[in-house]
Amino acid sequence: MTQENTVIKERLKKLRKAMSENGIDYYIMPTSDFHNSEYSADFFKVREYFCGFDGSNGTLVVSKNFAGMWTDGRYFIQAENQMKGTGVELFKMLNPGVPTIPEFLFDNMADGETLGFDGRVISTSVGENIENKLSGKFVKYKIDKDLADQVWTDRPKLPLNDMYVLSDELCGKSFKEKLSQVRIKMREYGTTAYLLSKLDDIMWLTNLRGSDVECNPVALSYAYITHDSFVLFVQEKEVTDEVREYCNRQGIELKDYNQLMEFIADVKIDGNVLCDKRNTNFLTYKTLLDKTAEAGVLLKNEKDPTEIMKAVKNDTELKNIREVYLRDSVALTRFIYWVKTNVGKIPMTEYTAAQKLDGMRAALPGFIELSFPTISAYKANAAMAHYEATKDNAAEVKADGMLLVDSGATYMGGTTDVTRTIVVGKISDEIKKHYTATVMGMLNLASSKFMEGCTGRNVDTFARMALWEMGIDYNHGTGHGIGYMLNVHEGPHSIRWRFSEGMQEAVLQPGMIVSDEPGVYIEGSHGIRIENIVEVVEREKNQYGRFLGFEHLTYAPIDLEAIDKQYMQPKDIEKLNNYHKMVFDKVSPFIEDEEILAWLKEATRAI
């Protein structure tokens, strides 16, 4: 018999009381902050507070007599365990017969009932989808209610950390130069004002940084831009004397983060307003929509112009990124040596291995923070693409099989991401086959040449072909953009072959950087991923047009113990040998230890 979870049941009872007091019949709690950031701070973990499930993706729906939590296949087992005895029903997303949340609401809400949620944590696309699905019913909405504030008495505060200024020399362009480019795009769109909600875009544009989102050096903020003013909404206590002086000098008007809605209500609008609803929460979007309608102008939903400007790195950014990646590659090379020489000799777990690498990075000049929590996965655990070991739940790494480590950091001068799968003992012929095909895929994409105008969809096949020929595929994209001292996952460009309806494609342009990370994941057996970061470069111009390609930014050994040449053509062997020659030439000058240098020479030998 399942033991009753009285803590969660009491919290739900108090929530239902607050719902009743506010005239709300159904209440939605997703996993998000006000900017749809990749990581949500403790303040935003409302869904976890009311159901007990702490996975990174889930949405809780509560009514007077019902509580249901929707999550994806990564978390079915975890959610079932964590919600035992709570009375919360698990809805397994995408399983046959399982309704979506809008479908469930349509089937269960009666005419005249009220749906409530905090519209700041609901994306505009989700909000509009709910509205569209329920349009055939008479349903009322209250989208400005954060009921957790009435119930969660010891709720954590909003993240509050000092902001800091990056020099124009480090960024390559001043705020005013970037702002001038933005205003040109505003004129092209026929707009006189622009509301920007995307945190990394605001940080890139202003040359400011913060630390309000785990692993993302951003401050919680909004920006309202006109042709003659720039208003930045941030938490007042995050503004240091340095930041205030910089903003005064740059003509940036500072307002409190919580004053945005009040500002929108009062601001005079004398022309069309630009707003990318992909990156704007539902409450902000609807408030601005009402304001522009009242003013008799248009709210123009266009792509944030800052997104592509940020993605195409300038010469200074590229120079610094190349230097940062080389230092980061040296640290990873030392870590691979440490794993191989110590496995089976000292106690080692997935977690302690990750801690070792994290410490090596933290010792590098200019280290700011990890760019994401290090993924360290041994043997079958590596078959889970985004597995994360913890101190209390980590497999022992023995002298058998392989260890996959996906890691990175943000430094003054760049943000890194790299994956290596390291042989630590005996592996099967099947693993060698899969490993070799993965390496071939990474190198094939990195060495490809393609026409200007191609997107990631056009080039994705280069990375998958060796695996597809074996009847194998991996269920994730091949590449994502990476920020400059910003988020490790950055758009608008990506490399993938499968695009769902509504997904945006972006043309690959010189100056973009992108990951190149094919893999093989065999449940219960092994997982392999080899990830380099590459820079888009021009290759040649001729009568047929402009040809582009990639240059490696990552220089770390690929484990030759797992390479089986029978699956390689001479051209594949040449690519691997050429890459390893570059690794040795780039990394060896930074290695003073003779033992590590001798190992590196052997690890990068020509085969």
The number of helical segments is 19
The computed structural class is: alpha+beta
Tell me the name of the CATH class of the largest domain.
Alpha Beta
- Average residue-wise pLDDT: 96
Helix content estimate: 25-40%
**Would you count the extended β strands for me?**
28
- The CATH topology assignment of the largest domain is Creatine Amidinohydrolase
Outline the secondary-structure elements.
Blueprint lengths: L5 H16 L4 E4 L16 H6 L7 E5 L3 E5 L4 H7 L6 E4 L8 H8 L5 E4 L6 H10 L6 E3 L5 H4 L12 E2 L2 H4 L3 H15 L3 E4 L2 H8 L1 E2 L11 E6 L3 E5 L6 H10 L2 E4 L3 H7 L6 E2 L7 H14 L3 E2 L4 H7 L3 H28 L7 H13 L4 E4 L4 E4 L23 E6 L1 E3 L2 E2 L2 E6 L5 H18 L2 E3 L4 H13 L10 E3 L8 E6 L17 E4 L2 E4 L3 E4 L2 E11 L2 E8 L17 H18 L6 H10 L4
Parallel strand pairs: 1-5, 3-4, 5-6, 8-13, 11-12, 13-14
Antiparallel strand pairs: 1-2, 2-3, 7-9, 8-10, 10-11, 15-18, 16-17, 17-20, 18-19, 21-28, 22-23, 24-27, 25-26, 27-28
Helix pairs in contact: 4-5, 5-12, 14-15, 16-17, 16-18
Task: State the gist of this model.
The chain has 607 residues and is α+β, with helices and mostly antiparallel strands. The protein is built from 19 helices and 28 strands. The mean pLDDT is 96.
What attributes characterize this protein structure?
36% helix; Creatine Amidinohydrolase; single chain; 607 residues; Creatine Amidinohydrolase, Chain A, domain 1
What does this structure look like?
The structure is a single chain. By secondary structure, the protein is of the alpha+beta class. The chain folds into 3 domains: 6-151, Creatine Amidinohydrolase, Chain A, domain 1 (3-Layer(aba) Sandwich); 164-309, 3-Layer(aba) Sandwich (Creatine Amidinohydrolase, Chain A, domain 1), CATH 3.40.350; 312-603, Creatinase/methionine aminopeptidase superfamily (Creatine Amidinohydrolase). The protein is 36% helix and 20% strand. It contains 19 helices and 28 strands. The strands form 8 sheets. Strands 4-3-2-1-5-6 form a 6-stranded mixed β-sheet. Strands 12-11-10-8-13-14 form a 6-stranded mixed β-sheet. Helix 5 links the parallel strand 5 (114-117) and strand 6. Helix 4 packs parallel to helix 5, helix 14 crosses helix 15 and helix 16 runs antiparallel to helix 17. The longest helix has 28 residues, at 315-342. It is globular and about 70 Å long. 45% of the residues are buried. The mean pLDDT is 96.
